[in-house]
Amino acid sequence: MKEKEGKELTKQGAGPENRLVLICFSGDLDKALAAFVIATGAAAMGMDVVMFFTFWGTPLLRDKKKKVGGKDLMGKMFGAMLPKGVSKVKLSKMNMGGMGTVMMKSLMKKKNVASLEDMLELAGEMEVRIFICEMSMDLMGFKREEMIEYPNLTFCGVAKMLEEAQNSKVQFFI
Amino acid sequence: MSADIKVDKVMDLKGMPCPMPVVKVSKGIKEVEVGQVIEAHTTDPGALADFPAWARTSGNEILKTDQDGDVIKFYIKRKV
Fold first, then answer.
1. What is the ipTM of this complex?
2. Cβ–Cβ of A41/B58 closer than 8 Å?
3. What is the pTM of this model?
4. Shortest alpha-carbon distance between residue B31 and chain A (Å)
């Protein structure tokens, strides 16, 4: 009963004037963190939130535990070279062969800043909707079976994202 | 605790950086009835701007803000 009331509160007033669409283009740790902070913050403010993951953002949604076969050579190459999920992404600056990313992660832990894994789970709890760009997946040879389990996941193209963006007041490209 | 405000729930959000104080308080407010009051403690200086913005947007009311050293205390009334 409480939970139901809560949902109504979260989504109250969530029409075009209270919707946020984030285009998550970047596959960098820092930019993804910014995207998730904005998404969860917006959900906390009662906004309806859509995150559209495209191009380099797509690998963030791969499940590190899942393995799929039947890929062609390019698919295998992309699969091996791109990060497998949010825990594997690197900083866009000061990565220093991975050392910078390790340091940043330990600093985040020390300062209680939520990790991308935590943020993704939190986004799910807060009913943030995630869209995955089918074209990017196809280009990089990702299959639906290797993507994460997420409560509000849609595989789609640009039109579905634009429909949401047209009915939103705030749009960010990250 | 403030003498003139009846508090129904206290939330300890100390040590949590952005966006967690606002995320937690948005969940916590749903655990009290409309008209009841939450007392939230945070050490995030950004909360001084963030909590009022959150309250305005979500339609809730901040009754009072106290600062005690590094700890900021918000008294928030659930309005919707």
1. 0.84
2. no
3. 0.88
4. 7
